[in-house]
Amino acid sequence: MSFAARSAFRQLTRVAAPSARSFSVMARSAAITQVPRAAACKVAFTQTRGVKTMNFGGTDEVVYERADFPPSKLQETFKNDTLTVLGYGPMGRGQALNLRDNKLNVIIGSRKGASWDKAVSEGWVPGKDLFEINEACDRGTVIMNLLSDAAQSKLWNEIKPYLTKGKTLYFSHGFSVIYSEDTGVIPPKDIDVILVAPKGSGTTVRNLFLEGRGINGSVAVYQDVSGKAKERAVALGVGVGTGYLYETTFKKEVYSDLYGERGVLMGAIQGLFVAQYEVLRARGHSPSEAFNETVEEATQSLYPLIGANGMDWMYANCSTTAQRGALDWWKKFHDASKPIFEELYESVANGTETRRSLTKNSAPNYRAELEAELAEIADHEMWRTGKSVRKLRPENN
Ligand SMILES: NC(=O)c1ccc[n+]([C@@H]2O[C@H](COP(=O)([O-])OP(=O)(O)OC[C@H]3O[C@@H](n4cnc5c(N)ncnc54)[C@H](OP(=O)(O)O)[C@@H]3O)[C@@H](O)[C@H]2O)c1
After folding, report:
1. What is the pLDDT of residues 230-266, one digit of tens each?
2. Does pLDDT of 335 surpass 90?
3. 160: CB partners within 8 A, 6+ apart
4. Per-residue CA distances from 291 to 84, 274, 329, 380 (Å)
5. Is 173 a catalytic residue?
């Protein structure tokens, strides 16, 4: 652990746990939850019948909360509905299982193969609540399109005839509708079209639900024919496992999502990790040292502190040596990367990213090609080193 991390951890344990304790993940997260969160206390908060207006850094935004939609209310809201979840990938699976546990009438639409088999193994019964895609669409009143984004476009002409007046079309990504010139997905005008986009993977949607917590999510309405689209979208969002829902639009959801995952969430972070690691290795540092100073300390010590208390708190609680260096260097990284972020946003906004994703992920051999590229990352020395380093974590001993 570097001086910065040691110092942050020392500060954390001083506040939360004066006695010596092992530096396990559990101990660390228990400690983190006891640290006062000054920033959180400053959030302004007004509420009217389930709708909250919260002030985020000076801007008021509307937030909906799970507590206002207990299972009994969800069951009442959807008592006349059949919720058809199309696809049993991570997102379809997570949302469908949560809906089922909330005792809503949910069925799965899947093609035969890996997803179908997985659904059967988790208790969905062919002919009862598991059907081929066409039949599931025919039976459903709310069609929850959780096929892969490429498949949503490919199968649109099969699904569309079942989207009759009075039904609702639901997405977890604004992709298909916003890039309709490329996807061909143009919903009929006489149905509600809504979105609930959990801010995380389908696996997290399921795991947090099982822990009795809800993931954050976005909610949006594209078409409101019934006059109840917003209310039903929020209720459905809670039904699939979100805890707080933030209002957005289809367009803003898809732009920010494509941008974020290509940027800091996945693309940029891998690029930064590899660049830092490569320089350390080229300068003679061992794989374990390069990995520890690049990834392990980040994910195990500093990022949890940022998550719990903010970058400002983490900076303020590091050594003055670390503070001086970070304060001097973050602006250089900012200035170097901002043009790339501008280029990335433009590529999202003008549809380049969508067209690439559709073309690549619709190719017959798309899975094999993806797996080959993913294997390159897994084979990189840095991530192979990570496997060994993780074995040495206290909780794995
Ligand atoms: N907002 C968020 O935070 C967030 C996060 C994750 C996902 N999402 C969205 O949720 C949706 C689903 O995501 P996912 O990660 O679960 O998707 P995924 O793993 O890519 O695929 C989901 C399903 O699509 C099926 N599928 C693929 N090609 C098909 C085809 N040609 N015909 C029939 N079925 C086909 C797969 O079945 P097979 O197993 O048979 O291939 C699988 O069941 C997407 O719109 C995604 O963007 C949103």
Report:
1. 999 999 999 999 999 999 999 999 999 999 999 999 9
2. yes
3. 188
4. 45, 10, 20, 12
5. yes
